[in-house]
Amino acid sequence: MAHVKASHGQGEEALEKYSVLSAAHKWCIVAMVSYAAWFSTLTSFIYYLAIHQLAQALAVSIDKILIITSYMAVATVAPILLGDAADVLGRRPVYVLALSLYIGANVAIVLSNSYAALVGLRALQALAISGKLTIQV
After folding, report:
1. Beta-strand (E) ranges in the chain?
2. How far does CA 114 lie from the centroid of its chain?
3. What span, in angstroms and rounded, lies between the C-alpha atoms of 85 and 72?
């Protein structure tokens, strides 16, 4: 992404860069952001197939499994919170913090063995990832 403009005196062309990042670095950023945006959609519905197994493993009735409801409830409010935080603190720090929280929540979900921990971590997961599209725009 460079802009070429002619100089006045000798007819030489001066190269003016709009970004200090290399093309490869820009593609890495685009890939990371796209991957994170895809995960926002994936993690909202991923537990539908495992509700019966989770109910059995956690000794909770299927009617009381709130992991999808808690995710969706937090996901409706999180873009507002992350968008406001990005306005105040900047997009990059909020994006990195949210992505780090998301990765940490995923690791903690894998290691959790109680229903209450799973519901709370799903809420944290929703908070961390659902505001990605708001910050990216």
Report:
1. 2-6, 13-17
2. 25
3. 20
The answer to whether 74 and 127 have CB atoms below 8 angstroms apart is: yes
Phi, psi of 19 (to 5 degrees): -145, 145
pLDDT at 6: 47
Tokens of 68: 């999808």
- Predicted pLDDT at 35: 80
Kindly state the tokens that stand for 109.
């979900």
> Which alpha helices (H) appear in the chain, and where do they start and end?
23-45, 51-58, 67-89, 91-111, 115-129, 132-136
pLDDT band at 8 (very low <50, low <70, confident <90, very high): low
Can you say how many angstroms the Cα of residue 7 is from the centroid of all Cα atoms in its chain? 44
What are the phi and psi torsion angles at 88 (to 5°)?
Answer: -85, -45
pLDDT per position as a tens digit, 57-90: 888 888 888 888 888 899 889 989 998 999 999 9
Residue type, 7: S
Please say whether the beta carbons of 42 and 106 come within 8 A: no
